[in-house]
Amino acid sequence: MTSTAETLARWAHDLVPESEELVLAQRSLVDTLAVTLAARDDELVGIASGLSDAARWAAVGHVLDFDDLHMESTAHISVVCVPATLAAGGDARAYLAGAGVMARIGVALGWSHYAEGWHATCTAGAPGAAVAAAVALGLSPERIATAIALAVPAAGGVQRAFGTSGKPLQVGFAADAGVRAARLAAAGATADPGALDAWLRLVGGDPARIAVTGPAVPGGLAIKMFPCCYALQRPISALRERLPGPIAADEVDQIVVRTPGCAVQPLIHHRPSTGLQGKFSMEYAVAAAVLDPHPGFASFTDQAVNRPEAQRLVRRVTVEETPGGDWLLAGQVEITAALRDGTRQVVELELPPGSPGRPPSEQDVRAKVADCGRDVPELLSGVDWERAAALLAGQLPGAAQPISRHEKDPA
């Protein structure tokens, strides 16, 4: 029987993108570059400076958690596949091939895989990055299947890393593993393509769920409007869009968020004390949506999270989980704000802006790019796949430095 890796490799090798798929690829390129450039001053840039291009670009691109998401696989596809494609000298077709394979493997892994605590961006990401790089390198279907198999040992990552630099770094490791696997396959390394099927079963996936029909990236990609976990896009949007007017923070007695339990799976920090933890906290996201005119980069700093008024509100937020659902946008969110004067305001929302069901407009994308830095719109004006790697290399220089065995532990 033909293995899943061989089936995916043949599909990726033969992919001829439609015009709308090329539009998606260009939007993904611009979105990924913008959120990566927005993190140029983050401390992770120095931490990751010794990593490969693919690993460094992916890690920095994910540290702000502002990159796109494939809803059906719960995987951040572009922040893995764009760096892998660029590091291997690829173009939109290579990106779409890698993104399509990553999405399909993520779907095969299923919600149960994510609910068990795996980070699907990494588990599906390593083989997806391998395909992107392998197609960029012009490999045959057989060599692409080998690259997928060689990436399997690195297909790992856990949600317990959320709220630390471990999350973006493990995304970088996935991108790097894929590029490394593709280069080893190009050099003649051998591997059993059946490794992908065996691994899928080991981690709770089902190879039978993979179908190489339909669009390159089935279901499309969700674009974030706020720099935090996707599970927070809907509650923040509900408070911003549906309230009749702003709520004074000191008038809040209690806020109750009622939501399907699956929609809060990655929100593991209930009393955050850092900006990174705040990106995975329902309680803080609600507080930020009440306090800040626009919950942007400034809302997710250590200082912002530790504001006395924010910490007070955090303790007044209660999350009630309802059963059912198998993705981050299952059902709807209902938020009830009880005020000290005895009044109550209730808002509901099913789809946040930027989701595939409410796709972003060109104006939305331009506004997001502008938010990522004063010079970012100019830097990305007319950017294409040929120029993108040089742009990242210039804006995020990095070279491996030997570590002395006597170097003092920074801790």
Relevant terms:
4-stranded mixed sheet; 2-methylcitrate dehydratase PrpD; 19 helices; 411 residues; globular; alpha+beta; 60s Ribosomal Protein L30, Chain: A
Structure characterization notes:
The chain is α+β, with helices and mostly antiparallel strands and 411 residues long. The protein folds into 2 domains: 4-225 and 360-395, 2-methylcitrate dehydratase PrpD (Orthogonal Bundle); 230-349, 2-methylcitrate dehydratase PrpD (60s Ribosomal Protein L30, Chain: A, 2-Layer Sandwich). 48% of the residues lie in helices and 7% in strands. Helix 1 (4-14) runs antiparallel to helix 6 (92-115), helix 2 (19-37) crosses helix 4 (53-62) and helix 14 (282-291) packs across helix 16. 54% of the residues are buried. Mean pLDDT is 95; it is low at 400-411. Residues 58-196 form the MmgE/PrpD N-terminal domain. This is 2-methylcitrate dehydratase PrpD. Belongs to the PrpD family. Residues 226-376 form the MmgE/PrpD C-terminal domain.
